[in-house]
# Entry
Amino acid sequence: MTTSPHGCPLTGKKQLSGAGTLSDNLTSLLDRMAAAGATAFYAKRLAPNDNSKNQIYLGGGFEALNTIPHGPIETDSTSKAGSVRDRAKAGVRFFWIDGQGLSLAPDVSLILYPKYPEVRISGLLKGAERAPSDLMRSRDPGRVLFLGTCPDGRVFGFAAAWSDPIVSALDAAELPETTGVFLNLTGLRTGITDTRTALINRLREIHQAGWIRSKKLGPHGPQPYQAQNGGGYTLEAELGITPNGHADPDYLGWEIKQYGVRDFIRFAPKSVVTLMTPEPTAGYYREAGPDAFVRRFGYPDQSGKADRINFGGAYAIGKEANGLTGLRLAISGYDGPQGKITDMGGGIHLVDAEGTRAATWAFEGLISHWNRKHARACYVPSIRQGPPFEYQYGGRIEMCEGTDFFLFLKAVSAGVVYYDPALKLEGVTSARPKLKRRSQFRVRHQALSGLYRKAEQEML
# Structure
């Protein structure tokens, strides 16, 4: 039996429904990655400059961060040729996979260059016992890096030369979908390479079903659900998604977001969209604590509830200070006209009239929160009737692809994304005051498309 340089058997070909003709060795590689825990699979065609010396380019902006699992983002400044380069990096739990199993590459990191901006990956060979060193050091054209990503954050890698039959199989495969600079190979295992069409077809069936009794999918199948927030659970149950509390619902790699509307004529959303809910990472809020923050910058409850202090309001760049709190939203380290981060030590701030930072969200923390979002999202409208509650799902959906932290910053800088907190301190004068906090960045539904590189409406 012939093998590749990594020990994969290179035998025959087989037909995989919906995925074209694949050689067994490509199928075997993906299967072995899946057996080790991978659930998503990608390929990156390597340019001559994509080597261990120059690092491997993963695309402009920070979009790759939504695809490659990574650890906390840390900023450092390196000196080169008399100048200081501001960059950030995040560790990756990376393993090379071969016929012997997994080989840890302990020094792999994603390197963020905010002033370009772009992301590269480095450290693929250092300390890795069975890394494909010669191949990754070369400038040979036609090389391909295959990746498998796991829900627990591990990433598997396999490199192949242009002459490897695995690359020939990749060239022959039908792959209509890309994720940033990566070819999306996940459908080669599921038999669904066009997940966009598959999702649209399934949502069309749900739309045509009319009214659906409110339910929630559990370990033993769908169960009646009569709380008022059943629209999302009911749609997930129809899609076969079991809520797990750890991540947004996912169907064929798409984040599914249901939202309520008043009717299917105007499709006017009933509420705004909460993008993320990060706690401040610096400023008075962190230094003195959220209790002291509410006492200093909050105000008596406006509806007359006794012994209660609130902190609320909508804060946007370009908007005057809130009359009740005296604070306004500001941003540092970001060049709006250029669309670039000029200082990774910057962030978004609530400041008072003297410029004192009451709360700060550092870029590092915000990037980590934003990277939890899926690269692809589908927004589905619904209307409700009852009780007993039933839901109907509209025939106009939004398919959004290619989110990037720089698009978020652009929207914040333009005042489109705003900070909308809901903090309250009850029993202020008691021995044990009760603090409730909710820190959230929001956007009007109509402005969602600006947070993605590609956003299209589809009629079902």
Residues 273-459 form a domain with the Alpha-Beta Plaits fold (CATH 3.30.70.3570). The chain has three domains: 13-190, 195-248, 273-459. Confidence is low (pLDDT under 50) at residues 1-21, 79-84.
